[in-house]
Amino acid sequence: MGWSIPIGTIKGTVVRIHITFLLLLLWIGSAHYTQGGWAAATEGVVFIALLFLCVLLHEFGHVLTARRYGIRTPDITLLPIGGVARLERLPEKPSQELLVALAGPAVNVVIAALLYLALGGFPSSASAEPQNAGVGVLERLASANLFLALFNLIPAFPMDGGRVLRAILASRLGYGRGTQLAATVGQAVAFALGLLGLFGNPLLLFIALFVYLGAASESHAVQMREVSRGVIVSDAMITHFESLSPASVLEDAVRCLLQTTQHEFPVVDGSGRLRGVLTRDDMIRALRDRGPATPVLEVMRADIPVIDRRRNLEEALRLMQENRLPAVGVNDNDGRLVGLVTPENVGEMMMVHAARPDRRMAS
């Protein structure tokens, strides 16, 4: 989701549009222009704007249903094949996830039904071609909503059908095993779509890649949740690390980088309190652009939260995932930094857990 642009916030949910949606806009507009000039191109842009609205309503079907169960949605990313509403956590019960997943396609079905009623019946088969300027906007919009509903019910993450399948499996097997099986099915679907794409439809190759990565990401996220369950932060944090002072410059940070295997360097003041974290990537970028005498305070990430070492590891993971953080600081009772939780050390913890699944994690 890195290639997405925030365009606004609706009731606490940031709405982002993926750059590939803009490519769809160019494709529809150019196809209409070649068929009917600027007037047709303008009609094509109107169609895309209405389709954009339908996709947004689809995602808010998920958002509003999730809020019934106390689950926030930090952001929505809109793509040409639909959208992705990122929930802050999984619903507590599989039945809740089932309703949240089905809410989006249900919105598209309702929109399609209303448009079919307004049109007086089902449109022609030509309405299934979104680039066809010879078909009315409402007819194409009705078919597009029906397509969105059916496509999103394909049993593969990150589509709604993958979550429906996971909810059904989780009701019998639990979230961990249910997610693994649903992700495997999703990756098989991605492989099948990729094969079809090789025979003349490049769009299917893009969809296959999107589905494959989505299935892998969902499986990884649930594995992290399963590993962190019942583990406190002090059992998983890094306790041996090099830190920088607020007076340090990039040259000092580079020296630490070369002498250790660390990628994240906490900036700690004289009282032991965390001021921020300087990542390896930010360090190298600033070294190239600003020079070795640049103070680390000017290039570090200052938005790093700290949590008590007795808190649950799930909380640290949630903070990192929701805010895309390179680390979370861990404090002792006096507010001094005593550890770090990073994606890398959590990944290592997952590998250990996978190697001995029948044993509890030791501190």
Any key phrases for this structure?
9 strands, globular, four-stranded mixed β-sheet, 363 residues, disordered C terminus, alpha/beta, three-stranded mixed β-sheet
Topology readout:
Blueprint: E1 4-10, E2 13-18, H1 19-67, E3 75-79, E4 82-86, H2 94-119, H3 137-151, H4 160-173, H5 175-197, H6 202-228, H7 250-259, E5 264-268, E6 274-279, H8 280-290, E7 306-308, H9 313-323, E8 328-331, E9 337-341, H10 343-355
Parallel strand pairs: 2-3, 7-8
Antiparallel strand pairs: 1-2, 3-4, 5-6, 8-9
Structure description:
With about 375 residues, this protein is of the alpha/beta class. It has ten helices and nine strands. The protein has helices spanning about 20-65, 95-120, 135-150, 160-175, 175-195, 200-230, 250-260, 280-290, 315-325, 345-355, and strands spanning about 5-10, 15-20, 75-80, 80-85, 265-270, 275-280, 305-310, 330, 335-340. The protein has a four-stranded mixed beta sheet. Strands 7-8-9 form a three-stranded mixed beta sheet. Strands 5-6 form a two-stranded antiparallel sheet. A hairpin with a 2-residue loop joins strand 3 and strand 4 (about 80-85). Helix 1 crosses helix 2 (about 95-120) and helix 5 runs antiparallel to helix 6. The protein starts with a strand and ends in an 8-residue tail after the last helix. The model is unreliable at about 360-363 (pLDDT under 50).
In brief, what are we looking at here?
This protein is 55% helix and 13% strand. By secondary structure, it is of the alpha/beta class.
